[in-house]
Each structure stands twice: as structure tokens, then as C-alpha cells.
């Protein structure tokens, strides 16, 4: 908005950038927030830690979440040149859970042919399917192979390539990154594009399709704050919001400490307008401090593990992401792993047990269960535009969809990250190695 010439005032009740999307430092602050007695052994210097925040009241957090190398957020960062303020590192590897073991998601055709995720005949069929996806062009009917992408379901596409349940689970959840199996009975176009995005991102750096900012996700809001300031945006930290001022059903300002900042439009998260949002579920998230890399991950310093719902008799996936000192978020020899999933029962702790088993032994864990909210209205009548709560996924694609939706509701224009630029022309590999 600032870049486009709008006058922007950003008010934050916290004394740091990013609100609940900040990264906590020093480590002692994390223990303090959860009322946990400090570590029994030295954990390095406290300021070597930058643990992405999990709040205790509102689900407006930004847990360690990875960026797809060719995804929407990276394109936005490059388009706005926020990357001048942030350095990234490629996440080492991506894994998927099957039969109580984790398996590396194949990064190359050679890896696919030796992967134990599939039998020998399914590997050939999967390769044929993957070639179809990579050659697919939404606007070129010749690449569709008599499949109408807007009518034929993904379940039917799998059937045409004779792919079994295990391959379907691996493809839909580890590549297309769906949280549930609802996508199977929807038109296949979005799923095909998701799989293309995964492999296009993977081709950038070969190791995995994911990036993570050095010093944690708190660098993202700080980068956008600096950019906004260059174009006249004003940030006010440690400023409480006492009241959202309305006149004739329209927002006209925000009252803080006896003063009113006047405005014509307001963007906020659910915590500022609890009467204008509704609860749609809950998410459990657990920060785990480790003194070792996760078992069976080739001693990698960062990774993602997806536990598909079908492997643990659930309706939604469980996500695990792990970062370390390699990303300047922990002391040397220490690791930060985060588990997240949608709550489905009255015993959330039991739901994440398969993920906890993968991480043992755990030095310390911090658990939070937060409600998920969505706005009750689109904001066009009162000009208050409310973001959705973050979901359980470990990538930013759903968040970017929310940003595009808010932008369109506010301006009536479409914000299309795909058309912003060709990432290859601006991403400097030296910043991500």
C-alpha cells in the first residue's frame, strides 16, 4: 500500500515488529512466556536463539514456516525488493511419514527410482504422471491429454495413471501439500498446479523446494516495515488499541491513549475485533528444543516432515519442521522442531504423539492450543478488513491467498503474484546457500 502511494499507519500493541509473528530472543523469554522453569543445563548464549513465536491467547502466530522457492511470497518479496533486507538459506530435505517410518521425498528422477515409497511398477507409472504434470499448460489443450482440468477430478486422474493409495497420499500431501483428502473430488487443475509449483521450487536449489530466513521469520515483518518506511509508512510500536472508532457503520479511526488516528480503511488480525470473527476450529502447536538432529534424516540441520492423515487415522495431516544454528535460530548443536496440526479430538496431546515419537529425546517442549478464526464479513460495508488465522500448514501459500483476497476486497483489483516477475531473474543464489 505504501509503495502504491497510500498513507499507511501501522499500530502495534507490542514493542517489537511483527506482533505475534516475531521471533523470540533471548531464549529465556520463551521459558518466561510459558511459565516454564529455565533450562537445567547451559543452552549457549540466550541471544543466539531466535525462536518463532507461538502466542497463548490468539492464533495469530507465525510458527517456523518455510517459503516455497518459487512460491507466491518469494515473488512478492522480490517484487517489492524486501529481499535487500533478508538473507535466506535452503532447507536441507523434505520427508514424508509412511508405515511408522520417515522417507525422503524424491528430489530427482534417480531418487524416485530407488525410493521405497513406491513399488517398482508404481515408480514407472508415477514417472509418467510426473512428466504429464510438468508438461501441463493450463492454456494449451494439447498438453491435457484429453483431461478437462476444470471438470475431471484428481481422483480420476490418479485412476487414469493407475496410481495406488500410497502414491496418492504421498503426492497429495507431500507434493501438492493438501491438509486433507477433500481435494480428491475437486477439479484437478489446482492440484496439478500445486505439484508443478513444488517441482519448480525444487529445481531452484535441488536440495528441497523450501527456503527459510536467517535469524527467523521475525525478519519478514521487519523487512516489510523498512520498505514501508521508505515510502512514507509510519510504524508505532508499543501502542495499545483502545477502540476502533465507527461513524454511520464505517470505520473512521483508531483510538489509542486518548488520541484518534483517522483512517478510511482498516486492516487487522482477529484479536483486534473479536466480535467480528467466528471460530472455525483449533490448532495445536508444539515447540521442541532438541540436542540432536531428527533420526533418519541424514543428520540434516533443517527439514520438513509431513505425516499424512491416512497414516495415523486422522482427517488432517500433522506437520513437523526443524531448523537449527544453520539458520541462526539456535545455539551450536541445538535444534528447534515445531509440530502443528488441526485439533480433531478432546485429547490434542495424544493426536501429536506420532510426531513427538520422531523427535525423542526432547530437551524441552512448549505447547499451545489456539482457536482459529475467520471474519464474519468481507469488510466492504464497514471498511474493516480482517485476516484469517494461520492454519497448520508449514508453508506460506495459504497466507498469500489470504493477502490476495484482502487486497481484492479493499481495492477491487486483483493482486496476482504469478505475473509480478520471473523469480529466476532476481533471486541471487548466494543469498540462499
TrEMBL record:
Gene3D superfamilies: FAD/NAD(P)-binding domain, Guanine Nucleotide Dissociation Inhibitor, domain 1, Guanine Nucleotide Dissociation Inhibitor, domain 2. GO terms for cellular component: Golgi apparatus. SUPFAM superfamilies: FAD/NAD(P)-binding domain. Keywords: Cytoplasm, GTPase activation. Its main location: cytoplasm. GO terms for biological process: protein transport; small GTPase-mediated signal transduction; vesicle-mediated transport. InterPro entries: FAD/NAD-bd_sf, GDP_dissociation_inhibitor, RabGDI. It is found in: Cytoplasm; Golgi apparatus, trans-Golgi network. GO terms for molecular function: GTPase activator activity; Rab GDP-dissociation inhibitor activity. PANTHER family: RAB GDP DISSOCIATION INHIBITOR, RAB GDP-DISSOCIATION INHIBITOR. Belongs to the Rab GDI family. Regulates the GDP/GTP exchange reaction of most RAB proteins by inhibiting the dissociation of GDP from them, and the subsequent binding of GTP. This is Rab GDP dissociation inhibitor. It comes from Leptobrachium leishanense. The lineage of its organism: Eukaryota, Metazoa, Chordata, Craniata, Vertebrata.
Amino acid at each position: 500500500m505504501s509503495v502504491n502511494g497510500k498513507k499507511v499507519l501501522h499500530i502495534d500493541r507490542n514493542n517489537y515488529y511483527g506482533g505475534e509473528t516475531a521471533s523470540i530472543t533471548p531464549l529465556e523469554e520463551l521459558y518466561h512466556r510459558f511459565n516454564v522453569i529455565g533450562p537445567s543445563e547451559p543452552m549457549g548464549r540466550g541471544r543466539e536463539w531466535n525462536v518463532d513465536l507461538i502466542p497463548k491467547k490468539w492464533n495469530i502466530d507465525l510458527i517456523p514456516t518455510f517459503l516455497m522457492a518459487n512460491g507466491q511470497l518469494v515473488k512478492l518479496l522480490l517484487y517489492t525488493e524486501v529481499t535487500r533486507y533478508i538473507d535466506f538459506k535452503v532447507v536441507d530435505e523434505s520427508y514424508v511419514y509412511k508405515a511408522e517410518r520417515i522417507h525422503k521425498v524424491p528430489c530427482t528422477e534417480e531418487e524416485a527410482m530407488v525410493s521405497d515409497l513406491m513399488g517398482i511398477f508404481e515408480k514407472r507409472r508415477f514417472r509418467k504422471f510426473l512428466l504429464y504434470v510438468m508438461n501441463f499448460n493450463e492454456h494449451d489443450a494439447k498438453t491435457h491429454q484429453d483431461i478437462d482440468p476444470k471438470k475431471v477430478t484428481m481422483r480420476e486422474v490418479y485412476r487414469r495413471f493407475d496410481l495406488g493409495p500410497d502414491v496418492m497420499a504421498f503426492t497429495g500431501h507431500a507434493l501438492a501439500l493438501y491438509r486433507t483428502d477433500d481435494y480428491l473430488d475437486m477439479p484437478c487443475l489446482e492440484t496439478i498446479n500445486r505439484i508443478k509449483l513444488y517441482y519448480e521450487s525444487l529445481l531452484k536449489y535441488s536440495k528441497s523446494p523450501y527456503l527459510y530466513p536467517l535469524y527467523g521469520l521475525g525478519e519478514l515483518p521487519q523487512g516489510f516495515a523498512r520498505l514501508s518506511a521508505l515510502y512514507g509508512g509510519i510504524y508505532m510500536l508499543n501502542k495499545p488499541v483502545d477502540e476502533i472508532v465507527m461513524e454511520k457503520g464505517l470505520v473512521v479511526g483508531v483510538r489509542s491513549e486518548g488520541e484518534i488516528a483517522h483512517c478510511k480503511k482498516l486492516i487487522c488480525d482477529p484479536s483486534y475485533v473479536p466480535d467480528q470473527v467466528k471460530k472455525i476450529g483449533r490448532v495445536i502447536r508444539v515447540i521442541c528444543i532438541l540436542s540432536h538432529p531428527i533420526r533418519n534424516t541424514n543428520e540434516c540441520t533443517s527439514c520438513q516432515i509431513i505425516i499424512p492423515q491416512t497414516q495415523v487415522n486422522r482427517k488432517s495431516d500433522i506437520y513437523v519442521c526443524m531448523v537449527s544454528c544453520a539458520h541462526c535460530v539456535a545455539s551450536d548443536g541445538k535444534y528447534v522442531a515445531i509440530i502443528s496440526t488441526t485439533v480433531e479430538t478432546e485429547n490434542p496431546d495424544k493426536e501429536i504423539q506420532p510426531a513427538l515419537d520422531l523427535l525423542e529425546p526432547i530437551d524441552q517442549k512448549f505447547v499451545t492450543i489456539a482457536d482459529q478464526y475467520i471474519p464474519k464479513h468481507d469488510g466492504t460495508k464497514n471498511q474493516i478488513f480482517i485476516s484469517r488465522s494461520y492454519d497448520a500448514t508449514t508453508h506460506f501459500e495459504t497466507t498469500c491467498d489470504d493477502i490476495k483476497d484482502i487486497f481484492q476486497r479493499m481495492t477491487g483489483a486483483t493482486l496476482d503474484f504469478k505475473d509480478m516477475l520471473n523469480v529466476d531473474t532476481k533471486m541471487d543464489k548466494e543469498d540462499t546457500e
